Amino acid sequence: MKKLHLIYLACSIAAFSSCQKEPAQQSSDSASVALKNNAISTSFAASAVSWVNVIPTSSFSNYSTYWNDLYPWGSDHNGTARMRSQNISVSGGVLTLTSAPTSGVGSSSKSPYLTIDYYSGTVYAKVVPVVDASWPKWHFKGEFQCESQRGTWPAFWVTGSTSWPPESDFMEFKGSATCWTNTYKNASGGWSSVGTAISSPGNWHTYSVYMTKTNTTDVSIEYWIDGSLKSTQTGANFVGKPMNIIIDYQMEGSSGSPGPTGTTYMRARNVLVEKSATL
Length: 279
What we know:
Layout: H1 2-20, H2 27-48, E1 51-55, H3 63-66, E2 67-69, E3 81-83, E4 88-91, E5 94-101, E6 118-120, E7 122-125, E8 137-145, E9 152-160, E10 167-173, E11 178-184, E12 191-197, E13 205-213, E14 219-225, E15 228-235, E16 243-251, E17 264-276
């Protein structure tokens, strides 16, 4: 691709130089020159964006280098699953989070303090992204197989590591085949949410997000699914806020109840995180 860009750039410059030697050309040629100038500028702009890899697509094959078990704050969150290392496994570069029913465990230690009905798994990245003037653009991407029956709540998201908000849910299924992409806090001080129907969420699908600094406080967040842009949302006061990256298989809560009576799974592979110093 780089060779093609160079050839295209060289040809565009040559064509532009040729037009400069012919001052008596028709006005239509002037328009052609303008288009060629735009093409050259676009080529330079595209080549100027240089990504720095933060988490490689092979990270699950080197799990302990890039990932931690459970949530950054422990084993419990806002559903009925208690997370355990025993429910986290990696094989062939694929992360598997396993949820299985349990009973007699007690209640979650986190609001709304639901009864624990499942043991499950979640992981979070060791790197803590920060969108700022040094790194104003970030890209988060991964391939996932997700359950979509009532009571299953798989998600790929970031949340503030030292405060909440911010939060951006790159992919969230709440007991159905609708994938939710959500941002809190938005410009109005609440949630922005867009739902997209996914055909067979249990098959591999790719979820990708570009988070870009737009001013001293806010970011633009593009949510992509399988190579198609589904939503662009504003994250207010995201700039300068460190965030935890979480892959999470929670249960019940917002996804409904009762949940599954048997064992279910969430799988992830080729998770990528990269950042750019240029826009």
